Amino acid sequence: CVLCGRTDDCPEKYGEKRTYVEYNLTVHYYCLLMSSGIWQRGEEDEGVDGFLIADIRKEVNRAAKLKCNICKKKGASIGCVDPKCKRSYHFPCGIQKECIFQFMEDFRSYCWEHKPVQKFPDKECRGTSQCTICLDLVEQLPMYTVLKSPCCKNAWFHRECLQYQALSAGIFFFRCTVCNNKDKFQKEMLRMGIHIPEKDASWELEENAYQDLLQCYQHCDIKRCLCKKGRDYNEPDSKWEIKRCQCCGSRGTHLACSSMKSWEQNWECVECQSIFAKSGNYSKQKKRSLATPEKTDGTTCLLEEPSPKCPRQSPGSQRNFLLQSPKMMCQNSLSPCSHLEHQLTPASNRVTMSLSPLMSNRNWSLRKKQLRKQQREVSNILNELKLQVNTKTTRLNINAENIWNSALKGFRQRKFSPTNTIEIKFTNCKNRSKTDTSAASKHHFFQLLMLHLQNSSLFEGSSAKNLSLDFQAVRENLYFEAGKMIAVSLVHGGPSPGFFSKTLFDCLVYGPENVKPALEDVADVDVAQTIKMIKYANSLSSLQSTIHDCYEFLAAAGCLRPITALCDKNMLVNDILTHHVIKRIISPLESFRQGLKTLGVLEKMQMHPDAFSSILCHKPERLSAETICDLFTIHSSSGVNKVEGADFWIGYLQDVESGESVVTLEDILLFVTGSFSIPPIGFDPEPTIKFLHIRYPVANRLLNCLELPITKTYEQFKNKMEFTIRNTLRVERE
C-alpha cells in the first residue's frame, strides 16, 4: 500500500486492497478514506472511487514528510482531529493502538488519547455477559474491544464481532441484534468507529440465490382429471386453478378435480396422506392444518378431505348414505305430519324413502355426530345472545371493493351500536348504490369481511392462523375492531371466521399464561427452520454450532442462555415458541379479547369452549345432500302429491352431490338464501320448500323459501332446477 507501506490483504481490517497496474498504484481502501489531506473530487467512476490519481500521489508525497507516532516510520497520512493534538499515524498502526476512525461525514480520526468512549453507569460496569453475536463471554467494561448497545440495557458486543456483522449486513440490515433498532444503533456504532458499508447485505447479493423459490409446481395429479384442456392447464381465479399440496408442494390438483369451492381450502396429496397415516400423525396433522377442535367425549371433530377419486363428492358424507326424511308440515291441518319412513302404509300415509345403505365408517359417523351436536349448541347460544338485538336499525354504507375501510368507518360511527339491527347498503365505484336490507345482503357483507380479516396483516399462518404483530394496527386499535366485528358477525347471522388456530383459541379462552404453543404455530418459515435446527440437534457440539449460527434471532427473542447439555435445547425451544407465538403479541391479543367481549361473545366462549372451537377453529362442514335435506322444512297443501315431489327433490340433491349436475349444493343454498354456507346461528326464518303448480323454481330470500314446480318426470324436474339456478346465479355475478 502506497500510504501505509504494508502488504497485508485483510479487507475486514484495512478495507479492500486494490492494485492499478496502469498507474503503478496499490492502496488499502480504508487508508485512502481516512487520509487527512485528500478528498473525493471526481465522480464515482473516476480514479479510485472518486479519488483522483493525481490527488493520491500528492497525498503520498505529503505523508512522506510525516513520521508515525506509533511505528516511527515515515508516511503517516492520518492525523488526530483534536485541534491541540499533533499526532500522525498509519491506519494499521492506529488500529493497533486502538484509535477511533469514524466512517461518516468528514471521516474524522481520533488518537488513543482523544478518542470518544462510551459512558456507562457504575452499576452496569461489572461482571460478564454474552456477546449476542458470537455468544462468547464479554467483560462489561468500557474498553476499546467491547461495545454496548445504546438501545438495550444488557446487549454487549465484541468490537470485532460487530465489525464483521456490519460488513456482512450493510447499511440496510445492520441493526441491534436484540431489539432490531436501526437508527440509534447505527449512529452510536459509527461514532465508535464501526464501518457500515453502503451496500446491500451479502446474502442479498448472491446471484440467483432465490431462483428456486420462483418455480411453482403446475400440474394436476388427480387420477381422474376433469379439465378438458389437460393436466397442465392453469387459469387463476377459476375452478381450473391449480392448488398445490399444502405439505409437500410437489403435487397439485385443479380445484374442480377435488371438489374445492375456493383456493383457500386445504388440500393434501395422496402421498402425504399416506405418510401421515403410516407415522400415526395423520390426525394430528389434519388437526393443525384445519385448526379443528381437540377430542371430546372420546371422538375427534376432524373434517377429512374427499378422495381425489370422487371429484364432486362432498366430504361431509359419502354418496351412499341414508337420507333422513325432510320435516313435513301440512298447511291444511296446521299440525305436524309423521316423518317420512322407509315404507308407505295407507294408515299413516308414510312414504318410502329407501335410498342407500348406512355409512360403513363408524368413526366418521361419530365425528360428524359430535360436530353437529356442538354446532347445534353454538346455534342455541348465539340465538340467546341475539335477544339483545333490538328493532332499531343502523345502516352501513359498504363499498364491496374496499370492504375493510368502509366496514371500519361504519363500526366507528357514533350512531353504531352492536345491539341495533344492521342494514347493509352496498355502493359501487360509480357512485350508484343498491340497497338490500335482506339477511342475504348482510350475510354477504360479513362473508366478505371475514375473508378480508383472514388475509389481512392482523393474522399470520396458512390455514390455522395466530395473531401477528402489526405496530400500525396496534396504534390504530384495529385488533379491537377485528374482535368486535367477529363478535357482531356471529350474533347478527354472519359466518364465523373459521381460521383460528388452536393456540389462539386457547389464549382467548384460558389466557395466554396457560397455553403452550407448538412448532406448527410459527408462520415465519425462517423462524420455524431455526427452531427445527435447535430441536433436532443430535449432539452438544451441533447444538452449540446451531445456536452460534442463529445468534441474531435468539438475541432478538431474548432467549440467549448458556448451553451445557443437550437436554437444554428443550427449554430453549419452549422459550422461543412462547416468545414468538405468545409474548410477542400480548398487546394485540389483549386488544382482540376486548373486542370479542362485544355482545358477551367472549364470555360464552369461555363457558362453552368445545362448542365454539367447532366454528372458530375450522371452516364449516362442506355441504352434503343430507345437510340440505335436513335444513329445509317441506310444506305441502291439499291437491299436491307431496310424496313424489319430495322424491324428486331428494333424488336431485343426490345427483348434485355425486357430480351429476352442472350446479353444486352451495349453488342451491345461495339461490335460496343468498349464502354459500349455513351460518353458525342458523337461518332466520328457517328455510322452507313449497311444491306448487308453477313453471320454474322461485326463491324468496326474504323468507328463505324455495317454491318448486310439480312435474311429471324426474328429468323435467332436474332440467328446470338446473336451468333456473344456473342462469339466476350467472346474472347475479354479472
Automatic annotation (TrEMBL):
<dbReference type="InterPro" id="IPR001965">
    <property type="entry name" value="Znf_PHD"/>
</dbReference>
<keyword id="KW-0862">Zinc</keyword>
<keyword id="KW-0833">Ubl conjugation pathway</keyword>
<dbReference type="InterPro" id="IPR035983">
    <property type="entry name" value="Hect_E3_ubiquitin_ligase"/>
</dbReference>
<dbReference type="InterPro" id="IPR000569">
    <property type="entry name" value="HECT_dom"/>
</dbReference>
<dbReference type="InterPro" id="IPR042013">
    <property type="entry name" value="PHF7/G2E3_ePHD"/>
</dbReference>
<dbReference type="Pfam" id="PF26054">
    <property type="entry name" value="PHD_G2E3"/>
</dbReference>
<dbReference type="InterPro" id="IPR051188">
    <property type="entry name" value="PHD-type_Zinc_Finger"/>
</dbReference>
<comment type="pathway">
    <text>Protein modification; protein ubiquitination.</text>
</comment>
<keyword id="KW-0479">Metal-binding</keyword>
<dbReference type="GO" id="GO:0016874">
    <property type="term" value="F:ligase activity"/>
</dbReference>
<dbReference type="Pfam" id="PF13771">
    <property type="entry name" value="zf-HC5HC2H"/>
</dbReference>
<protein>
    <submittedName>
        <fullName>G2E3 ligase</fullName>
    </submittedName>
</protein>
<dbReference type="GO" id="GO:0008270">
    <property type="term" value="F:zinc ion binding"/>
</dbReference>
<dbReference type="InterPro" id="IPR011011">
    <property type="entry name" value="Znf_FYVE_PHD"/>
</dbReference>
<keyword id="KW-0863">Zinc-finger</keyword>
<keyword id="KW-0539">Nucleus</keyword>
<keyword id="KW-0436">Ligase</keyword>
<dbReference type="InterPro" id="IPR059102">
    <property type="entry name" value="PHD_PHF7/G2E3-like"/>
</dbReference>
<dbReference type="InterPro" id="IPR013083">
    <property type="entry name" value="Znf_RING/FYVE/PHD"/>
</dbReference>
<dbReference type="GO" id="GO:0005634">
    <property type="term" value="C:nucleus"/>
</dbReference>
<dbReference type="InterPro" id="IPR034732">
    <property type="entry name" value="EPHD"/>
</dbReference>
<dbReference type="Pfam" id="PF00632">
    <property type="entry name" value="HECT"/>
</dbReference>
<dbReference type="GO" id="GO:0004842">
    <property type="term" value="F:ubiquitin-protein transferase activity"/>
</dbReference>
<feature type="domain" description="PHD-type">
    <location>
        <begin position="1"/>
        <end position="115"/>
    </location>
</feature>
<keyword id="KW-0808">Transferase</keyword>
